[in-house]
Amino acid sequence: MRAGSLRLYAAVAAGGFRRYATYRAATAAGVFTNTVFGLILVYTYLALWDEKPHLGGYDQAQAVTYVWLGQALYSTLAIQGGGAEKELMGRIRTGEIAIDLYRPADLQLWWLASDLGRAVFQMLGRGVVPFVFGALFFPMALPNDVTTWVAFVVAVLLGMVVSFGIRHLAALSMFWLMDDRGVSQTLMVTGIFCSGMTLPLNAFPGAFGDIVRVLPWAAQIQMPADVLMGEAAPLGAYAFQAAWAVALLAAGRLVQSVATRRVVVQGG
Amino acid sequence: MGERSRLAEGLRIYRLIAGMWIRSLLTYRTSFVLTAFGNLLVTGLDFVAILLMFAQVDELGGWTLPEVAFLYGLAATAFGVADLVLGSMDVLGARIRDGSFDILLVRPGPVLAQVAADHFALRRLGRIIQGVLVLGWGLLTVDVDWSVPKALLLPVTLISGAAIFSALFVAGAAFQFVAQDAAEAQNAFTYGGNTLLQFPPTVFGRDLVRGATFVLPLAFVNWLPASYVLDRPLPLGLPDQVAFAPPLVSVACCAAAGLAWRAGLRSYRSTGS
Question: pTM for this one?
Fold first, then answer.
């Protein structure tokens, strides 16, 4: 990639960041909501781990850490949708996507950059406070060395790309479906459940657990959490995340090229 | 106009607008069936999560699965009714921001009824159906020493619970007059409250239970009456009679929410754009 186009996508990402940073009241409301949900979940997990210690290989402190990490990454990774894909869906539905196709920029990279900008803001603006709140009031299993924290941040960044890959594919289905409600709902269900928002994936029983742990959603919360708590080797986690990121982005690229070649853009 | 005829007028307007949304929705029947079914699945997932938890343990906070299902069913059904009737009110903030709220003010009809019926989503029936299914299953499997007061308490609890959640939705809407972008904050109380009530009160810290009883009286939706029905001690050592308080509490909540709504509406200033 040339330096010029790199600057372009950096500018798009910065735009995504600034756009979400504008709505301070919304951010504060989100922080509050995530904190309340974290509080509720933390008590249910404590009860569960009290009944069955070492469920999924976590001790209580790790289960608590998982809860607050999930709340911190909830909007960062747009677990229930609502990131750049929401806007892309709207643009496909209204036909405004035609303008995007004229732009001298790669469509997929454009939206990826915009979504990464959003994700970084959500992590700093919405994620940090609930996490710190959790760390202050509940015993957590946090590493003391900087290397693990750095490894964790890399895992989160890869998680962002996987998250975009899933939602981008969903958004492209608009070219054929036109109505986003069903797809958005599916995104929400799979996102919340398969990412392990309700229960850590390693606590899922039997074969069901084996399946959810290899799906792309496992790259979102489970992997960064396991890297942070030393339950997974960073390189193995990265390989899993990167493989899904590449597969999803390649699939997105393929679907996008089919869509833009064969589908007639909505007029009106 | 007297209070009584205002209420009747509000209900009439609500019926008209909701009817319009239903008609427009039923133009796309397949989409409706799919989204209603999807809604049932989405809301059912948090019960699946509870089932997954009980696949690993026999009790949670000392409560068995049928007992938790009973709790869950009561909360989910009550919340489902409130969500169907008033769940679209979170678009109010967007309406205030883009100025389209002014249109509602000049229409002949109570504003609350108009806002409540705006974007009426029949697909939310899915949540009620799911709640009723779990409640039914819970009732069939739970071990209850039934008596007349207990049997009477059930429907009363459901209606009161729906009223308490409705009051929360209205209060949340009133809050949006003050902080339009902060619409999400009310989710902490509505959806968060629903999640909280799906688990036994013994799971949570004493202060959280206190808050959910005396500050935001969510406990009256199911914790208190369900504890009575299941012959368990009421949370916080409250006397058994308190289990019959939900109707009173729900009336008080609705009155408070009504006042908040009026105050919010009076403070409204148009964006002028």
Answer: 0.90
